[in-house]
Every structure is written in structure tokens, then in C-alpha cells.
Automatic annotation (TrEMBL):
Residues of the PPIase FKBP-type domain: 99-189
Pfam families listed in its UniProt record: FKBP_C (PF00254)
Reaction catalysed by this enzyme: [protein]-peptidylproline (omega=180) = [protein]-peptidylproline (omega=0)
Protein name from the UniProt record: peptidylprolyl isomerase
Coiled coil feature spans: 327-379
BP-aspect Gene Ontology terms: negative regulation of apoptotic process
Keyword Transmembrane helix listed: yes
Gene Ontology cellular component terms for the protein in this record: cytosol; endomembrane system; membrane; mitochondrial envelope
Originating organism: Glossina austeni
Amino acid sequence: MDPEKSSNSSFEDLSNESDIKAASENMIKKEKEAISEETKMSIKDNEGTMKLSDIADSDSDSGAPASVGDEEPCDILGNGQLVKRILKKSKLKRRPMRGELVTVNFTGTLADGTVVEKEETLQIHVGDFEVIQGLDMIIPLMIVGEVAEVKVDSRFAYGSLGLKNDDNPELSIPPEANLIYEVHLIDAIFEDFADLKSYDVRKKYGTRKKERANFWYNRSEYSRAIQLYRRALEYLDDRDGDPDAKFDKEDIELTNMELQSLLDDRLIVYNNLAMAQIKISAFDAALQSVEHVLRCQPGNSKALYRKGRILDGKGDTKGAISLLQKAATLETDNRAIQQDLAKLIIKARREDHNEKEMYQKMLGQAKKLEQKSKQAQKQQIVESSKLKLLGYLMGSILIGVAGVAIYRYKY
């Protein structure tokens, strides 16, 4: 039932907004300093009166051609693991924002020049882990129309796992490989909620997010997979994408067939999301995910199986057995279900045995306590009897002594 699992990679999630913002500010400052220095050097003494502001205005003119220059590399993180160098400047000033749809061309090579990745007119959403982390961090620092060379440490590329190329094994990316990319940022578009109402757009984006989430899941990068599965669900919803809107059927016009298609995809994503959440022991969240599936498809064997695993993780072994038995009747040839069911039955017997032993121990301790209590009571009775006997004896002696004293006194 589980997607194929790979060993842990060395990815580290540093692509949050604060990291990108800090890196962006650092790079922009360096670019401004470099541009200012170049501008000053380009002013000739005999031209005298030209102002720097006039030069800046002329550079930003829409008719100015994009320049090609030998720019100094910019160390984004300050440790040499992510370095950007502009190969071709853009005459525009717009940088893409996180979440915007961008179109890029890029070519990735190893240190020896072997081309291992190449994409043309690839569309992605910035910050959605649809490319390697290094590129996801660099793209918001580029200007639309710019071409840049990016040196990416393996930590922000494919880590200790590398990337296998099944079609051409010679072009596989080895583990711990540093990569060099040439990236051309073609376009960046802000999508309004109105742009996301068509079936084709929702199907396209939802499917793309789901497939990329599966990629991260198979690399054991469960947190990234969860984020992309959730993003896929946003697009596969049959309502308007505005989270603050009140939804009516008129918000998005879809045929019954289109609605069913989105629903089927959405249930697949919920099932995969639950599996990723199980992997990080987020059992409560995973339970909510499978319940979404079972409300629509009570006989979904995968959802039943995963709910069984969730209940097992939460300590409800008997409940897990009941669900896995249902799943096993629906998929009689599924060995994974049969094996897990057998393990749970053995676990349940062991738990019953342990409970019996615990009860016996508790009962034995209770009997011992009862015996000790009875013995203590008997001891108290004996001691009390001895004291009474001693009291009677002393009383008798005193009476006798008193009688003798009285007799002698009289006679």
C-alpha cells in the first residue's frame, strides 16, 4: 500500500519567507552597489555635467536594450552554498513574489559540464517546492527577463540521494553532487481567484502538485509532500479559491463529469496526504484526511487500511484489526494488508496476555494485602487478650494483697 520509500536525504528546509527576504535584501544591496560603481566608472571627466540620476533614468527607459555583462558573483547565504551571477541583465524591474506563477528555462550541469537537467518554458509556483530548493530560493531574487548562473550546493539540490535517470542512467545525478544552473526567468504572473475558476486550470495545477508531492514522498521528504498535497487540494476543490468567500454553486461552473473528476482526484490526494501524515506520526491530522475519503467512499480499501494504521498508532489495536479485516475482504490479494493484519492479531493476543498477567499480579497483591491485614488483626486480638489477662492477674494480686493487709490490721 505504501509508495516506494527511499532512504533519508540531506535536504534542509531553509526556503521560508524570512530566509528568502534576507537573501533578497542582501543581493539587491550588492547589485545596487555594483551598478553604482559601474555607473561612476562610466562617467568621463570631459562629459562634465551629466548627473547620476539622468543615467539611471536612461537605463530604466523602456527602449534600452538588456545588457550582457561580466557581473560579480553574489553569495546569497554567505557560505558559498548558493551563488548567483547575472549573465544577462533585464531592462525590467519586476521580481516574482512567493506564490506567483513563473515561466522559466533552465539547464543544470555537473561540475564536469554534463547536462543532467533541462527544462524549457516550465511553469511553476514560486515557493511550492516544484523545483529544487536552491532554484526555489533564487527565482524570487531574479528580475523578469534576467539570465543568471546559479551554483547550488548538494544540500539545496538532490542531497545524499541524488536523482536517478531511468531513461538514461549516465545522466543520473550522483549523491552529494553540486550543480550549476543557467536560469532564464521568462515571465511572472499574479493569478487572481477569478483566474482559477476553470476546470482545466484546476485539473492541471492540482495534478501537477500531486505528482510533485509524490516525488517528495518517495524521497522520504514527508513535510514537503504534505505541503504540496495540501496545495493540490486547494486547486481540486470544486469551489472558488478565495478562502474568505461564501461559496455557492454559481462560483464555478462545472459539468457533473468535471465535478466527479475533481472529486476522484481529491480523494486520491487525501489518501496520499494521510499516508504522509502517518509517516511523521501526525495521527490526528491523518485521521481527518481519511475521514474525508470514507465519507464519500465508505468502501475505499486504501482509506480503511490507513485508518487502521492510524488507530494502531493511537493504541486502538482492536479497532485497527476490525478495519484491516474490512480492507482485506475488499482486497484479498493484497499481501501488505494480510501481513499487517497478522501482526496486529499477534499484537492483540500479546496485549491480552499482558493484561491477564497484570490482573493476576494485581489480584495476587490484593490477596497478599488481605492476608497481611488478617494477620495484623489476629495479632491485635492476641495482644489485646494478653493485656486483658495481665490486667485481670494484676487486679487479682492487688485484691489479695489488700485483703491480707486488712486482715492483719484488724487482728
